[in-house]
């Protein structure tokens, strides 16, 4: 039995400590996922709390056909879609990247940090130009490092569909990067 399965059993039995452990294990990942798609720190915080509230309210519905993480991200995915429909947003990312954890070494030189931040900002800017489904598949696969199978479960798509979506998303991202590089040179 996996650690999450044990924690789920304990949580279903009323163990608040197990609920807390599940929360702290996944809260940062769910928050990053929400923030990348919503682009607003406070909206991402609120959605993260909603996802955990819904997951604990519906924990008895978790059938263990997938991992707890996959199940949790499918709740987050649906919550993001619901929120985007409600607010009729076309773009989910904003320029407030300071709140998003940069994946840089702590002791990096100032020059390396500035270069990494610029590169990161450019990547986020390119991602903003992609359709929502492309951003979502790239985030799940490469930021959260989900397998194709888990990504398919979260997105409620077939394995082959996610594979094709990922290919198209990567191709589109590379095309955008190439165009931007050509504009910078010219």
Task: Name the shape in a single word.
Answer: elongated
The number of E-state strands comes to 0
What share of residues are in beta strands? under 5%
Number of helices: 8
Distance linking N and C termini: 58 Å
Q: Helix/strand/pairing class, anyone?
A: mainly alpha
Question: What string, H for helix and E for strand, traces the elements in order?
Answer: HHHHHHHH
Major sheet attributes: none
Spans where pLDDT lies below 50 across 5 or more residues: 88-108
Q: Overall mean pLDDT score?
A: 79
- Helical proportion, percent range: over 70%
Question: What's the gyration radius in Å?
Answer: 18 Å
Question: What features would you describe in this structure?
Answer:
By secondary structure, this protein is mainly α. Helix content is 73%, strand content 0%. The longest helix has 27 residues. The radius of gyration is 18 Å and the shape is elongated.
């Amino acid at each position: 039995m996996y650690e999450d399965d044990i924690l789920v059993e304990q949580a279903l039995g009323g163990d608040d400590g197990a609920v807390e452990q599940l929360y702290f294990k996944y809260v940062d990942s769910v928050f990053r996922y929400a923030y990348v798609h919503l682009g607003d720190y406070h909206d991402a915080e609120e959605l993260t709390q909603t996802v955990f509230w819904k997951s604990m309210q519906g924990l008895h519905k978790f059938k263990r056909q997938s991992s707890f993480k996959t199940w949790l991200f499918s709740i987050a995915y649906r919550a993001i879609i619901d929120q985007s429909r409600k607010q009729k947003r076309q773009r989910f990312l904003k320029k407030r990247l300071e709140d998003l954890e940069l994946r840089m070494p702590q002791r990096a030189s100032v020059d390396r940090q500035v270069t990494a931040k610029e590169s990161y900002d450019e990547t986020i800017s390119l991602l903003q130009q992609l359709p929502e489904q492309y951003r979502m598949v790239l985030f799940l696969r490469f930021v959260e490092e989900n397998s194709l199978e888990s990504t398919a479960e979260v997105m409620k798509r077939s394995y082959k569909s996610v594979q094709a979506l990922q290919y198209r998303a990567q191709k589109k991202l590379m095309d955008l990067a190439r165009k931007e590089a050509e504009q910078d040179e010219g």
